[in-house]
Amino acid sequence: MLQSNMLHNDTARAPFDGYSQAEESNIGELVSLALRFLRRRYLVIILTAALGLAASLIYLRITPPTYTAQVKVLFGNPKTPFVQQQSVVADAPVDSAQIESQIQLVTSKAIATSVIKQLKLSDNPEFKSPERSWLSVVRERLGLGHASPAREVDPMDELVDDFGRRLSATRLGYSTVIEISFSASTAERAAEIANAVANTYIADQLGAKLEANRTATAWLQERLNELGQQAQAAERSVNRFKADHNIVAAGGKLMDEEQVTNLNNRLVAARAQTSEILARLNRLEAVLASNSPDAASIGSLDASGSDVLNNPIMNNLRQQYLEYARREFEYSSRYGADHLAVANLRTAMKGIRTSILQEVRRLAETSRNDLETAKQRQQEIEKQLAQAISQSRTTNSAETTMRELETGAKEYRSLYETFLQRYMGSVQQASFPISDARVISPATPPQSKSKPKTALALALGVLGGIALGAGFGLLREIMDRVFRTSAQIETALNLPCLSMVPLLKHRDLKRLSPRGAAQDKGDGERTLSRGSGTHWAATNLPLSRFAESVRSLRLAIDMDPARTANKIVGITSALPNEGKSTIAASLAQLAAHSGKRVILVDCDLRNPSLSANLAPNTSSGIIDVLSGARSLEDTVWTDRKTNLALLPAVKTTRLFQTSEILFAEQTRELFAKLRATYDYVIVDLPPLAPIVDVRATTPLIDCFVLVIEWGRTRTDVVQHALHNAPNVYEALIGTVLNKTDLTAMKRYANYHGDYYNKEHYVRYGQVTAE
User: Fold this and answer.
1) Is residue 442, in this structure, part of any structural domain at all?
2) CATH code where residue 511 lies
3) Given 394, 416, 438, which residue is the final one in a domain?
4) Is residue 459 within 8 Å of 57, Cβ to Cβ?
């Protein structure tokens, strides 16, 4: 229920801000939060940064210097064409996997052992007794080591392990260059060992290649002898088989195959010639059949084909015929169709046609004779081809076997020649060794130490200290679950902060308001005591921040739009000692000082601290009025300056049922009388969290004000108290952040109070807030 009410109040009270305005203020708000965080936690951050710097200086002081030298080796050294041709062992392409393999080889135990023996590092004091790591010592002392205690450690193994920790090899980018680094206590020693590692690696590569060549050469020689014997045996088998089966070959082909091929080509040519002659004869016979001997025109006699056109006799006769036909047409047109000259021309044309027809018959007879000759030639070739095919079929089985033997012999001979070539290359390369790697940048003594890096160590110390300090500060921020700003109150409780009351200095209050008599005994009246400077600060210091904060609270009560009449105002807090009694007394004083009729009622029946300060000698109070033992007029105390009235509470006996007393009908009648008599009824209520008395007063109170102590009251305590008192929460008009340290507030929120400066306080005799 409380959560729903909080959401409702938040929705009703939250102002509407546009998205663009919120977006513009986000960056500024983050910067402001960061600056306030630094102002609050700068001491922790500075302290941890100083400690980090001191730790860095100690580390630089006690850590011995280390120098690192680098040598660059190019892997995949380009070879001359001669070496590439003579290489026996195939060279794998240089890729990432091969480069990584070479890096592992550089840092291998074999290279380390060879360099140690070559440079006699076992006699060097730096390498003679390598110190074990603190982790290994701890593991041995705790009995967590993997090795058996009885096992003796080889000094060479320890030396190799220390050498491996100092040695490193990396690939430079995507190139085939390997950078070998070695760390030592002196620059000269580091360069010497780095160069020795590179040279040992190159020598190892060369030795491995020579050993591989020797092994390959021996194997090739043995294999070459076997292949030579196998090739000779296969060739002898081919020759023997040819002799046994009478197989003769010319130009790589068998004689039978060559003869069949030639006859087949001749048969194709003969058939083509026969077909051509037959076609010519058919054309000539067709021309003769279509032209009768008595026809007058030449008809199709001159269209018999290319043979007729190429005949000179036919061409001559055709030209004479065409010339006579032209002249016959001209004479017929000039002299008439029956003229003697025209008749003579027609007779000559008929004779020419007869001659053409006879020539065509002669050509047809010639073609007929040629056809018979071609057919006889074709038949003869067909007989020869059939005989050759019949003869070749008898050798098919032997030919297949021979082909298989020849193929095997050729393969053995080719393999033998290949191995012979590789063997010769291996023999040549053994006398011309070349490594796949070479040094392109030898190591030189470094000019500066590699470890520890002074600038880096100092920077890490300072930055690490700053980060650690920020972490500690952030942890304190997270653990600081108390109210310090009005924004925290509005966010956590969904209630407005009506006023921020500053914390007063007691020494100044004692100086400005010295303790007087408890009461005026001159006339015997019940006069309020002004001995407590805190309770009278609102009227004694009218121009102070304290008084102005209380005025802000009264204005908020008067202008609350939720209620029409806030005559009875209850002042409570979540926990004791949060200053609710002081706020109640100050609020009542300011209201009475303005001329209003105000009564201050002390309803904290179990701990009436307000009455103890303002009416210390009273012997009767609200309990006596409720029981009827005393009248209200005989119990109320007043202040002569402000006419403020006080209905005190007296703790004579231990009360257990205070909530029932406050909920009784007599209490309601009393408050109804107070409402009718006074303009304001300010009620000092007990704390909300420890006891339930405040919940019993909700029928009596028009509105509540919750007092929260700055920097002390925890957020979860107030939320829990309001959650258990939903009726009180409904009647709350807001909160008061009491005992606020205005100087420290600047570190938590954008709070400015420059109006109340030091000159102002001195001039008017005011006090400053802590």
Assistant:
1) no
2) 3.40.50.300
3) 394
4) no
For residue 488, pLDDT beyond 70: yes
Collect all residues with Cβ–Cβ distance below 8 Å to 349 and sequence separation of at least 6. 296, 321, 324, 325, 328
Average pLDDT over residues 697-716: 90
Domain count, the chain: 3
pLDDT, mean of residues 582-602: 90
Residue 259 · residue 388 · CB < 8 Å: yes
CA angle 694, 699, 704 (to 5 degrees): 50
Torsion on CA atoms 276, 279, 281, 282, rounded to nearest 10: 170
Does one domain contain both 625 and 537? yes
Whether residue 367 sits in one domain with residue 286: yes
Q: Give the tens place of pLDDT for each residue, 325-339.
A: 888 888 888 888 788
Residue 279 confidence (pLDDT) above 50? yes
CB 631 within 8 A of CB 621: no
Asked if pLDDT for residue 766 goes beyond 50, the answer is: no
Task: Identify whether residues 475 and 494 lie together within a single domain.
Answer: no
Is residue 715, in this structure, part of any structural domain at all?
Answer: yes
Clarify whether residues 496 and 457 are in a common domain.
no
Computed over every residue of the chain, the mean pLDDT equals 77
Q: What is the pLDDT of residues 526-576, one digit of tens each?
A: 888 777 667 787 778 788 888 888 898 888 888 877 665 668 999 999 999
- Same domain, residue pair 500 and 461: no
What digits encode the pLDDT tens for the residues 30-55?
777 777 677 777 778 888 888 888 88
Q: Determine the Cα–Cα distance for residues 385 and 58; give it in Å rounded to an integer.
A: 111
Instruction: Report which DSSP code applies to 150.
Output: T
Q: What angle do CA 303, 304, 305 make, to 5 degrees?
A: 95
> How far apart are the C-alpha atoms of 623 and 123, rounded to whole Å?
100
Look up the domain containing 351 and give its range: 253-394
**Any domain includes 627:** yes
80: left (phi > 0), else alpha (psi -120 to 50), else beta?
beta
- In angstroms, the CA 707 to CA 704 distance is 10
Q: Give the chain's end-to-end CA distance (angstroms, integer).
A: 39
pLDDT in tens, 86-144: 454 455 556 788 888 888 888 888 888 888 888 888 787 777 644 444 445 445 555 55
- Cα 627 to Cα 599, 621, 623, 635, distances in angstroms: 20, 10, 6, 13
Q: Please say whether the beta carbons of 659 and 692 come within 8 A.
A: yes
Q: How far apart are alpha carbons 590 and 679 in whole angstroms?
A: 13
The answer, yes or no, to whether residue 10 has pLDDT greater than 90, is: no
Does the bond joining 452 to the residue before it have cis omega, within 30 degrees of 0?
yes
Same domain, 602 and 746: yes
Strand pairing report for 177-184 and 167-171: antiparallel
Residue 157 in domain: no
Contact predicate 659/691, CB 8 Å: yes
**Mean pLDDT (whole number) for 418-423:** 77
The torsion of the CA quartet 621, 625, 627, 630, rounded to 10 degrees, works out to 90
Give the per-residue pLDDT at 336: 81
Same domain for 326 and 463? no
* Integer Cα distance of 648 and 604 in angstroms: 10
Q: How far, in Å, CA of 48 to CA of 369, rounded?
A: 129
| Same domain, residue pair 535 and 466 | no
Q: Which tokens go with 229?
A: 């014997």
Pair 439, 30: CB distance under 8 Å: no
Task: Report the amino acid identity of residue 691.
Answer: I
Nearest to 685 by CA among 667, 673, 669: 667
Distance in angstroms (rounded) separating the CA atoms of residues 693 and 728:
11
CA nearest 663: which of 625, 626, 620, 703? 626
